[in-house]
Design a protein that fits this description.
Blueprint lengths: L1 H7 L5 H27 L9 H16 L6 H19 L5 H7 L1 H25 L3 H12 L2 H12 L3 H25 L7 H11 L3 H8 L4 H16 L1 H16 L13 H15 L9 H23 L4 H29 L1
Helix pairs in contact: 2-3, 2-4, 2-15, 3-9, 3-15, 4-14, 4-15, 5-12, 6-7, 6-12, 6-16, 7-8, 7-9, 7-16, 8-9, 8-13, 9-11, 9-15, 9-16, 10-11, 10-12, 10-16, 11-12
């Protein structure tokens, strides 16, 4: 009779339990991202930005409480799947039509900036004997579009999750310092506001940094700055395919399954969303500016949540042993880029 009672008890469904833990993991990354956004609204921290704030929170949480293994599946979903989804949505920020019709002249300078940033950062990294993966990611982030570029190329380069998160955090921090420095020195610089706008657009790290630095110079300067930056975002696509070809050649002959380079299908989504945003949204499909701003905010939130998932993989010992030399290489490159690009802007 006792055995019958015991056997009749309903045990929790493993599938239901795992689903709940998965949802808990995703919610956990959302919660830290939300805290990051809240902190970024505080005067002083607003220049730092939600991405950097959220990654810092994730790193501190990891050091104090350890990695939340129980909800790992949901955290990994954010770090992998949501990251690719964020890159696809990021395509809406790129207006291909504007770049083609108004920014072709800037594209030549954008190409030069990307090539300079990658090769100089990697070269300095070799001289400093820095971590090669981090150095390459930082060079790409510096040259193209910051954390979004790092997130896009990481799967192609088979970068480790902690390398991706460390690189994104460094880019956000250093880019913020540079954009604030630009606004401080702007009144003392020779040249017009439009020249300053072009300089900001071809040299600063992320779109948010360009917007921060360009706004004080006026709407025209801000517009040309963002246009120059969008050209660099556009070049993320051919760069990704070049890297994919390079990785395939690099891995040729090794024969191992894990050396195969997966096709970055999310970049196709990025291109399609760019085309949709450039030629359909706002034209065939009317949409208000507030709605576009909401989509942009949602994209930033999803990207931040994904970076939280990656940031939880970072240990402070990794930061000390791996990040210092790549940070020095990237900082030197950024300084050189600022000086040199001022004369070609």
């Amino acid at each position: 009779m006792v055995n019958e009672n015991v056997s009749s008890l309903k045990m929790p469904s493993p599938r239901g339990s795992s689903k709940g833990l998965w949802l808990g993991g995703v919610a956990f990354t959302f919660a830290i991202a939300a805290i990051g956004f809240a902190l970024a609204a505080i005067p002083g921290l607003d220049h730092l930005g939600p991405l950097a704030c959220a990654i810092l929170i994730a790193v501190v949480y990891r050091q104090i409480f350890g990695y939340p293994e129980l909800i790992r599946s949901g955290i990994q979903f954010s770090a992998k799947r949501l990251l690719r989804f964020a890159i696809i949505l990021f395509g809406l920020k790129l207006n291909i039509d504007v770049v083609i019709h108004q920014g072709l002249g800037l594209l030549v300078r954008d190409v030069a900036v990307i090539v300079f940033s990658i090769f100089v950062t990697v070269g300095l990294g070799k001289l400093l004997k820095a971590n090669s993966s981090l150095t390459l990611l930082l060079g790409i982030g510096t040259g193209v579009c910051g954390a979004a570029a790092i997130a896009a190329v990481s799967p192609i380069l088979k970068a480790k999750d902690d390398d991706t998160a460390i690189s994104a955090g460094i880019i956000a921090l250093v880019g913020t310092i540079f954009s604030i420095t630009y606004t401080i020195i702007r009144p003392f610089l020779p040249g017009s506001d439009l020249h300053y706008g072009i300089w900001s657009g071809i040299s600063l790290h992320e779109i948010a940094h360009v917007a921060l630095a360009g706004a004080p110079a006026g709407q025209d300067a801000l517009a040309i700055a963002l246009l120059a930056k969008l050209g660099r975002v556009l070049l993320l696509v051919p760069l990704s395919f070049i890297l994919m070809y390079w990785m395939s050649r690099k891995n040729a002959g090794r024969g191992s399954e894990d050396t195969k380079v997966e096709f970055p299908w999310f970049l196709i989504g990025f291109i399609l969303m760019s085309l949709f945003g450039s030629y359909v949204l706002g034209k065939s499909i009317p949409i208000s500016k507030s709605a576009l701003n909401s989509i942009s905010y949602f994209t930033s939130f999803i990207l931040t949540s994904a970076m939280v998932g990656l940031g939880l993989n970072i240990s402070l010992s990794d930061l000390r042993t791996k990040a210092l030399r790549p940070l020095i290489a990237m900082s030197i490159t950024s300084v050189l880029l600022s000086f040199l690009s001022f004369f070609i802007a």
